[in-house]
Amino acid sequence: MTALSVLDLVPVRQGCTPREALAESAALARHAEALGYTRFWVAEHHNMEGIASAATAVVIGHIAGHTSTIRVGAGGIMLPNHAPLVVAEQFGTLAALFPGRIDLGLGRAPGTDRATLRALRRDAMAAESFPDDVLELQAFLAPPEPGQMIRAVPGAGTEVPLWILGSSLYGAQLAALLGLPYAFASHFAPDALDQAMALYRERFQPSRQLSKSYAIAGANVIVADTDEAARRLFTSVQMRFVGMVRNERGLLTPPIDDIETYWTPAEKMHASRMLTCSFVGATQTVERQLRAFVARTGIDELIAACAIYDQRARFRCLELLRGLSF
């Protein structure tokens, strides 16, 4: 049985505020916990009107504080945007508050556009030091060495589990080399998924944190009572991805009856390629799709992004998805 988790971008819906989005995310996490999901991750994105998870460590604390058993974490923190010591202190604090429940996924992309990258005071070359930054962060979270001059307080000795995130072969190779679990962002960048998974498993080297490879893949999952209802709910996701193509990243919009009236053929081709790893339909439809996906990729865990406009439909999606066998 494949482990099952939730990736939530804390979507700000049209007609709602970030405060409401954060409350809805916490409510969704409580629901996922009650249903037995493994983990609930949020991600670092900046300057995006429709995503309220920019202050990712703060959001994790909010969600962990409203739940009691589910693992909560970052999928992920864009490490080149931050000093490793600061990340160690933030997640060490979270681990002190919520012991045994915090995950720290790490990415090397900026999580934003070029103008916002400059506003973050990020060095354009910072990604080049990503492997060294991961090792530095790992050292700050490890038990302190005698005479160690700089310690993360809290943080030192917490050994918060690290994950490498990626959408290319780079992350797969790094995760394998460091013996860390790997999460692939196939929910929006699916092209290298199969090759990355094979490379990660082939080159994996056991480490103190992990004795054998462990891989997650992200997917957009919309399950409803009928195929037609699920396809309609999915139009909110499709319009969001068309917005990326148009460079218009706004609020999450209500679903529409006919997506073909919304996008051009070129936009449809581009958005549909990014959404290749999307599983939409009633339970039998999605179960069949997910069984084939897991058999193809060999993943250990699926993390589902369910960007549905209506909160009740999101709850229903998690209920139906949890009942599937794949």
Write the layout of secondary structure elements.
Elements: E1 3-7, H1 18-35, E2 39-42, H2 56-65, E3 71-78, H3 84-97, E4 102-107, H4 114-119, H5 130-141, E5 162-166, H6 169-178, E6 182-184, H7 193-203, E7 215-223, H8 227-246, H9 265-274, E8 278-281, H10 283-297, E9 301-305, H11 311-322
Parallel strand pairs: 1-2, 1-9, 2-3, 3-4, 4-5, 5-6, 6-7, 7-8, 7-9
Helix pairs in contact: 1-2, 1-11, 3-5, 6-7, 8-9
Explain what this protein looks like in three dimensions.
With 326 residues, the chain is an alpha/beta fold. The protein has a single domain (3-322), classed as TIM Barrel, CATH 3.20.20. Helices cover 42% and strands 15% of the residues. Helix 8 (227-246) crosses helix 9 (265-274). The model has no long low-confidence stretch (mean pLDDT 95).
Comma- or semicolon-separated keywords:
globular; 11 helices; 326 residues; TIM Barrel; alpha/beta
**CATH architect. name:** Alpha-Beta Barrel
Q: Which CATH top level class fits?
A: Alpha Beta
General form? globular
Q: Please, what is the CATH homologous superfamily? A: Luciferase-like domain
CA(first)-CA(last) distance: 6 Å
Provide the domain count: 1
The residue fraction in helices comes out at 40-55%
Low-confidence stretches: none
The secondary-structure element order is EHEHEHEHHEHEHEHHEHEH
